[in-house]
Amino acid sequence: MPRSPGSAAEVFDRAGTVILVLADEDAVDAVLGRGTPDFATRVAGHTVVHMGTTSPEYSAALEAAVRDAGGAYVEAPVSGSRVPAEQGQLVAMLAGDATAVTAVRPLLAPLCREAFDCGPVPNALLMKLSVNLFLITQVTGLTEAFHFADRHGLDRARFLDVLDAGPMASAVSRMKAPKLLARDFSVQAAATDVLKNNRLIARAAREAGLASPLLDVCHALFDETVANGHGGEDMVAVLRALEARTDGTHPGVPADDGP
Fold first, then answer.
1. Active site residue 179
2. What pLDDT digit, counting tens, does each position of 18-52 carry?
3. Which InterPro entries match (predicted)?
4. Are residues 96 and 134 in the same domain?
5. Mapping DSSP to helix (H, G, I), strand (E, B) and coil, where does residue 94 land?
6. Which of 128, 176, 179, 196 is catalytic?
7. Residues 48 and 133 in one domain
């Protein structure tokens, strides 16, 4: 059985295409050795596939740096959380040089049931942020509706049955509704990660001069969820922020876009 690489440098020595699924921009820079002589040595002649969620402007600058050093670069963020990943049901968004994108596409097939070309960098990340804006507002809306039904004394299971039988049912609601009913906050998509995405989307909206009123409300609620110690729980833990507002233990304040 081949020995696993012991360092990032060894990964680049042994692979022509390197897929990065890292937490943030600092982690990507550290693995690539960006800002050091190691950067050019690692990326020259390689294809770097960036699957993490970072700011679009960071990705665009990284693509330019990789290409200047003689490498190729593909953005490949995905839509989906832990369960779809385990089932190979993620949806990938691809951006970059057409030749590099074509070469990378089959490498993602074990994880992704579909992969969509989005054009040049950073369009794949902008597409991911657009999808996540819908996801965040959708799950927050579902959670608020559940809270509304609950506090009016309705049968919560019956409410979810009605929702599931109607036109608003979706793969997301069918995944999250049982968690709300059971108060199961085990992680599929952590509230901390949702807040990070919310901040990225809010920043992109501000830079483009776009109104984002629904996102801004969700931003404040997830900021409260994380501030109250629930960042490691699933995103349906935003229920805790709604309950705190209803019970008067948190009045609600505008969220900070963060660094």
1. no
2. 999 998 999 999 999 999 999 999 999 999 999 99
3. 6-PGluconate_DH-like_C_sf, 6PGD_dom2, 6PGDH_NADP-bd, HIBADH-like_NADP-bd, HIBADH-related, HIBADH-related_NP60_sf, NAD(P)-bd_dom_sf
4. no
5. strand
6. 128
7. no
